[in-house]
Amino acid sequence: MSLEGRRIVLGVSGGIAAYKAPDLVRRLRDAGASVRVVMTRGAESFVSPMTFQAVSGHPVHDTLWSAEAEAAMGHIDLARWADLVLVAPATANVMARLAHGLADDLLTTLILATESPVCIAPAMNHQMWLHPATQGNLTVLEDRGVAIMGPGAGDQACGETGPGRMLEPQDLADRVQLLLGRAGTLAGVKVLVTAGPTLEDLDPVRFLGNRSSGKMGFAVAEAARRLGAEVTLVAGPVSLDTPAGVERVNVRSAQEMYAAVMQRAADSDIYVGAAAVADFRPKLASEEKIKKGTEDFQTIELVRNPDILAAVAGSENAPFTVGFAAETSDVEQYARGKLDKKKIDMIAANRVGVDHQGFDCGDNALTVLWNEGRQDLALQPKSSLAGALMQLVEERFRTARDE
Ligand code: C5P
User: Fold this and answer.
1) How far, in Å, from the CA of 60 to the mean position of ligand 1?
2) At what angle do helices 92-99 and 132-143 cross, to 10 degrees?
3) Structurally, how many domains does the chain consist of?
4) Residue range of the domain that includes 324
5) Predicted pLDDT at 1
């Protein structure tokens, strides 16, 4: 994936991590991007504008109040020019100013004026990061669609340890490529992925759930994005970061997941159902907390949830459908049965209940089955496994489309 022809405004604000920003400019340019640097006054206390001019190949923009600069490429021109505005490092102060919509310098003004995506790489002392004011601003920015990259945890310039380190330049450049990249073998292909468990409420505090971590589905979404696809991820309740460049829709119950998926299925080319959807839900979910002694609690009557995968496969204009099968025994036999019964194009089967594999852990192995064939994917981290799976999916998807 490359950034060839993409235009990035890099906003640098005044934190010690600013010393890494020139390296970030180089890595973005190495990937093919044109970069214009906008510095805040604080940033200029850490790194000289000359450094950024040298690595970006363009003069630095640092003020709203220069008639000459405004005539050359003013704040509105910069805002329009950018395909993406990345603020790295983003200090607590810049996050607060962005959250409140202030326009008191060039960077904040052009961010208000741009229609392009904005992302920030926060960097600050861990106490400042964890302060409720910063966390509140973070929520505001996230809700507004700003992509948040990091921060990482570890040693800090102040000598303390904790969350607040800016992500490394190469990691940031990779994430920008995921956000903006339009190259790749799946460019122009729409992929819909489900991930995580569904939770079925009994009352306002209790639910029936399962141990799915969501890692496999999130890794599949990221792998599809790496191949250049337009990815939507419908996720049950999990605490995982959204992969860069992926649109996420959060749901809780199987019924909510069904609605979110069916709304998007006809417009998708590939559907990967990696969620562990609860097969049943309580017939009645009480609006009040059920009391310990009541009869209601001794027997829970269940009703079936819709089978989302089968519904997608059976729908009009069905996408290429891929399901997962988690079994504790006779994995392949059950999986093939599911392939036929649900009339899906492909199924990825894994054995659960085995140590260090499958549910709720980082590694997995899969046996992938389709009508005419099969392939084993060896035990490996879910991220690389998802890459191998998506390559297989792509091959089968193309074959199916050409038939
Ligand atoms: O039948 P079983 O639950 O084992 O099938 C697993 C596959 O079916 C997974 O891909 C899962 O996402 C999907 N599924 C579904 N809706 C359900 C149950 C399972 O989409 N209600």
Assistant:
1) 54
2) 50
3) 2
4) 190-402
5) 55
